[in-house]
Design goal:
Distance between the termini: 36 Å
Helix content: 55-70%
Order of helices and strands: HHHHHHH
Number of strands: 0
Number of helices: 7
Radius of gyration: 20 Å
């Protein structure tokens, strides 16, 4: 904060550098990239379902069906779009919750590596699975940051509601 004692500047998060508008640009790029990568990953997973390793018959969690994978992409993507719309309406905490839900779209890719043989997938499949996981982690990180800083991202007028009518 300008004019604040130096000790206050060091202990207070430096949100002056990350305004709502800048965060909105970052979120749009992040979601755009994450959704593009998820299309590649989920379409490959659906179309080439038999090329992915599956857990054995005695596994605690069975492999999801190709149909479930396809439906999951639409559900996750809808949740991500809801998160963006909530963000744009400055419902920051609700947006952070929805974005956390969307982040699972990428983070769930970790499950591929719990199955024997996943490390043997072709390089380009490894690349899009790992990139999808990284995008999920980035969206999750953004959601945590937004939730933590929501009071600074919500405009003062929105915090107090509309003015009373005379």
């Amino acid at each position: 904060m300008p004019g604040a004692p130096p000790s206050d500047r060091r202990t207070r998060p430096n949100l002056e550098r990350v305004s709502y508008l800048r965060a909105t640009r970052m979120l749009c790029w992040l979601l755009g990239i994450a959704m593009l990568v998820s299309v590649v990953h989920y379409v490959d997973n659906y179309v080439n379902y038999d090329d992915y390793p599956v857990p054995g018959p005695d596994a605690a969690v069975p492999a999801p069906s190709a149909r479930l994978i396809a439906v999951a992409w639409f559900v996750f993507t809808a949740v991500g779009i809801v998160g963006l719309l909530l963000w744009l309406r400055r419902h920051i905490t609700s947006a952070a919750i929805a974005l956390t839900g969307y982040s699972l779209s990428g983070l769930i890719g970790i499950a591929h590596y719990t199955v024997p043989g996943a490390g043997d997938m072709v390089w380009w499949r490894q690349l899009h699975v790992v990139t999808d996981i990284a995008c999920g982690a980035a969206v999750f990180g953004f959601a945590l940051w937004a939730a933590k800083n929501s009071s600074e991202l919500i405009p003062p007028a929105a915090k107090h509601g509309p003015p009373p009518h005379a």
